């Protein structure tokens, strides 16, 4: 009988804390479409302050935040954006920049650490003298931390170099900062310095920070004014949204300092998994709260079956491929939860090895 549930599928699965629920219940609210909601204004101003930008805008999701940002920078249909071929915007956001905005993606190969070689970015910028054939490059997008690279962090030096390149060619730089606070904590660089070179940033509040809903996009006042109109066009204009923003404010106040603990727990988990026979983890890639582990050939199990067996023990995982599993640590996963997870996976591995040596059905556990 399952006595505990440890949800490691993502850092989006957290439940609102009692402090968040109380803040939501007491939130002062008004009509945010008319720009009257005071709690929304407070949150937007706070995120703008933290990121060192002039203004902010609350949006329902990071996907909408990225979409709005790209569309503001690429107002003319047929514009082109340079972005990583393994980036969240390119892979997981439903192709919205092209289907809705008419923006052409120019994917460039991401390195294993989430960066894109500077010379590859520059070579991808279209020659403006050949506009008769080429779309016009207007924007570069980076992601920090980089989810598909295992939560790797882009350094401030790298981002500054990309920012300098953008300015050199008259382009804008947008950062998908879904986990920018994780990157800041891991690099020990303040968020405002980390995004200083960016013209806009999308900051997710419902991932590592644990708020139930929402992101804030930040930039200049003129950028946000145009973004507000696009938010309404996309159906993201909500009324008494301060109820949601109140929880996000609590997340900023209470959970930023917990990210370092999440990173420590992720590292402990990664090192423990790497010691289990049949599993492999690239320890060097574990910089923040995301851990990928591979199931080696000959392990007599696949990721889907592993996930189903672990669920019977109250542990929820997310298979990434038949032989790969993603785990994401968040503030509602304790050090004890990590040890219990390792214990269960190790026990399963031992039983599989034993059954394999006996020639038994490896899945009859």
Automatic annotation (TrEMBL):
InterPro entries: ArAA_b-elim_lyase/Thr_aldolase (IPR001597), Low_specificity_L-TA-like (IPR023603), PyrdxlP-dep_Trfase (IPR015424), PyrdxlP-dep_Trfase_major (IPR015421), PyrdxlP-dep_Trfase_small (IPR015422). It catalyses: L-allo-threonine = acetaldehyde + glycine; L-threonine = acetaldehyde + glycine. Residues 7-294 form the Aromatic amino acid beta-eliminating lyase/threonine aldolase domain. The modification N6-(pyridoxal phosphate)lysine is found at residue 207. CDD domains: TA_like (cd06502). One of its GO terms (cellular component) is cytosol. Its EC number is 4.1.2.48. Its cofactor is pyridoxal 5'-phosphate. Pathway: Amino-acid degradation; L-threonine degradation via aldolase pathway; acetaldehyde and glycine from L-threonine: step 1/1. Keywords: Lyase, Pyridoxal phosphate. GO terms for molecular function: L-allo-threonine aldolase activity. It holds the Pfam family Beta_elim_lyase. GO terms for biological process: glycine biosynthetic process; L-threonine catabolic process. SUPFAM superfamilies: PLP-dependent transferases. NCBIfam families: GntG_guanitoxin (NF041359), PRK10534.1 (NF007825). PANTHER family: L-THREONINE ALDOLASE, L-THREONINE ALDOLASE-RELATED. Threonine aldolase involved in threonine degradation to glycine. May play a role in the removal of L-allo-threonine. This is low-specificity L-threonine aldolase. It comes from Mikania micrantha.
């Amino acid at each position: 009988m399952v006595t505990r549930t440890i949800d490691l599928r993502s850092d989006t699965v957290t439940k609102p804390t009692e402090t968040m629920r109380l803040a939501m219940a007491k939130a002062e609210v008004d009509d945010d479409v008319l720009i009257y909601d005071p709690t929304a204004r407070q949150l937007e101003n706070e995120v703008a302050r933290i990121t060192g930008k002039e203004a902010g805008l609350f949006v329902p999701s990071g996907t909408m935040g990225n979409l709005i940002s790209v569309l503001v920078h690429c107002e003319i249909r047929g514009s082109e954006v340079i972005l990583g071929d393994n980036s969240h915007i390119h892979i997981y956001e439903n192709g919205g920049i092209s289907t809705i905005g008419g923006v052409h993606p120019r994917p460039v190969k991401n390195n294993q650490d989430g960066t894109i070689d500077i010379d590859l970015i520059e070579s991808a910028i279209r020659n403006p003298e050949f506009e008769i054939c080429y779309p016009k490059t207007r924007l570069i997008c980076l992601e920090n931390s980089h989810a598909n690279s295992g939560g790797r962090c882009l350094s401030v030096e790298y981002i500054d170099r990309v920012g300098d390149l953008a300015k050199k060619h008259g382009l804008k730089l947008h950062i998908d900062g879904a986990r920018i606070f994780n990157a800041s904590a891991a690099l020990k660089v303040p968020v405002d310095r980390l995004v200083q070179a960016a013209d806009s940033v999308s900051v997710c509040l419902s991932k590592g920070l644990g708020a139930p809903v929402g992101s804030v996009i930040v930039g200049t006042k003129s950028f946000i004014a145009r973004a507000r109109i696009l938010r309404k066009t996309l159906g993201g204009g909500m009324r008494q949204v301060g109820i949601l923003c109140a929880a996000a404010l609590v997340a900023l106040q209470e959970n930023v300092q917990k990210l370092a603990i999440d990173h420590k727990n992720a590292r402990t988990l990664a090192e423990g998994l790497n010691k289990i026979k049949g599993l492999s983890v690239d320890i060097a890639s574990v910089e923040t709260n995301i851990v990928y582990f591979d199931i080696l050939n000959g392990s007599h199990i696949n990721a889907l079956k592993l996930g189903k067996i672990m669920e019977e023990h109250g542990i929820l995982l997310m298979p990434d491929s038949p032989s790969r599993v993603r785990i994401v640590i968040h503030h509602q996963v304790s050090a004890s939860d990590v040890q219990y997870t390792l214990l269960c996976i190790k026990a399963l591995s031992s039983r599989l090895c034993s059954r394999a040596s006996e020639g038994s059905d490896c899945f009859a556990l």
